[in-house]
TrEMBL record:
Lineage: Bacteria, Pseudomonadati, Pseudomonadota, Gammaproteobacteria, Pseudomonadales
UniProt subcellular location: Cell membrane
Segments traversing the membrane: 6-28, 48-68, 74-92, 104-122, 128-148
Cross-referenced Pfam families: EamA
Residue span, EamA domain: 2-115
Source organism of the structure: Pseudomonas vancouverensis
UniProtKB keywords: Cell membrane, Membrane, Transmembrane, Transmembrane helix
Name of the protein in question: DMT family transporter
Topology within the bilayer: Multi-pass membrane protein
């Protein structure tokens, strides 16, 4: 993604990527003789999921990667398990036991340790903005994962 952003603007890159994926899936569905369009009852949850993944996850991740190194980007996006632990507790009624709670605390402390140097310089620079967007991307990834489990 980082290399592609040197050639393409973020949203053109995302659009191209998603259009190619959709066309590929349509071809596969056609070859398997399965319907291409979803059932009418599936449209609403699929539209919500599309917004969560395409705008929430892909758009924030791709836009933010202009400002943050690839390695740090991967770490920040993979805050997703921290968010899933909390969201699953509230939206899927999954118990947040002591092991999960400890995992959430350790994950959060690890995130703070990684971000601490930037947090000491409170002024809003583009790197910090990119990092915040990447954490947001991880949140949207988690939210879409919980949404899938709840609705499909």
């Amino acid at each position: 993604v980082k290399h592609s952003l040197q050639v393409f603007p973020p949203f053109l890159f995302i659009s191209t990527r998603l259009i190619l994926a959709a066309l590929t899936l349509m071809i596969i569905q056609r070859m398997l003789k399965k319907p291409i369009l979803p059932k009418p009852s599936e449209w609403k949850p699929l539209m919500i999921l599309s917004l969560l993944i395409c705008l929430g996850f892909y758009a924030t991740q791709t836009f933010a990667m202009q400002f943050v190194a690839s390695g740090l980007s991967a770490v920040l996006v993979f805050t997703m398990p921290i968010f899933i632990g909390v969201l699953a507790h509230y939206f899927l009624n999954e118990r947040l036991n002591s092991q999960k709670g400890l995992g959430l605390v350790l994950g959060t402390l690890g995130l703070i340790a990684i971000l601490w140097p930037q947090l000491q310089h409170i002024h809003m620079n583009t790197s910090l903005l990119g990092q915040i967007l990447l954490i947001g991307s991880g949140f949207f990834w988690a939210l879409s994962t919980v949404f899938i489990k709840k609705n499909f």
